[in-house]
Amino acid sequence: MGYERMSDANWHITTLSADNQRMIEQAAGLLVEGFRTFAPNAWPNMSIALEEVHSMLGSDRVCLAAIDAQGTILGWIGGIRQYEGFVWELHPLIVAEKQRGKGIGTALVQALEQEVRLRGGITLWVGTDDEDDRTSLAGVDLYPDVLDALKQIRNLRRHPYEFYEKLGFVIVGVMPDANGCGKPDIYMAKRVCGEQRKQT
Ligand SMILES: CC(C)(COP(=O)(O)OP(=O)(O)OC[C@H]1O[C@@H](n2cnc3c(N)ncnc32)[C@H](O)[C@@H]1OP(=O)(O)O)[C@@H](O)C(=O)NCCC(=O)NCCS
Description:
The protein is an alpha+beta fold. The protein has helices spanning 21-35, 46-55, 104-118, 146-151, 161-166; strands spanning 11-15, 61-68, 73-82, 87-95, 123-129, 170-175, 185-191. A seven-stranded mixed sheet has the order 1-2-3-4-5-7-6. The structure holds coenzyme A. The site of coenzyme A (COA) has 18 residues, from strand 4, helix 3, strand 5 and helix 5.
């Protein structure tokens, strides 16, 4: 099954291939550029970013890219098989800064959902860090009532958790201090298999 439904006149979604060195380098470059301002430790240089891209090309992973007519990568997404394949982690997701707001992020997530569903996965989840005070969960001590803080979450400066909410993900947890004191990782998940499976 292709990704025609998720594509646009100017770009389409395809699998990132291990033998396309040019695209692999572009994908790594997007990680370094895209996360520099708000998560500078994530992929601080090309060599670490290239390692990440290569690791995403393994057989138990999914790696998809949105590509324009010239073969330039506009964004890409990865999926990692976990929990015997019942659960997949969305990691990473990046859209080039100039290409944001055109539906590319949405299309990449939907294409990954399709891939996870085809592989028998039930759940897609993502950890979305807040390293620069973009939500009400950052810069505060979340203990002792972590769940209450989660219920009261507010988006202060366009943290992507709302992007995921628009795609049907819900907040399922948070790791306080995941990236240092007051810098949590917000966990979100979505059931992608359509209906709840009966227990046997
Ligand atoms: C988050 C990101 C992938 C979104 O990609 P995109 O192509 O711009 O998203 P889309 O155009 O598909 O947006 C879909 C909807 O989400 C909204 N949205 C996108 N980014 C958002 C954000 N940061 N905060 C709140 N809403 C957001 C859009 O406004 C749009 O809403 P609408 O349907 O009501 O118009 C992109 O901004 C990005 O690469 N950011 C930097 C890296 C990052 O944060 N990755 C995720 C780490 S977990």
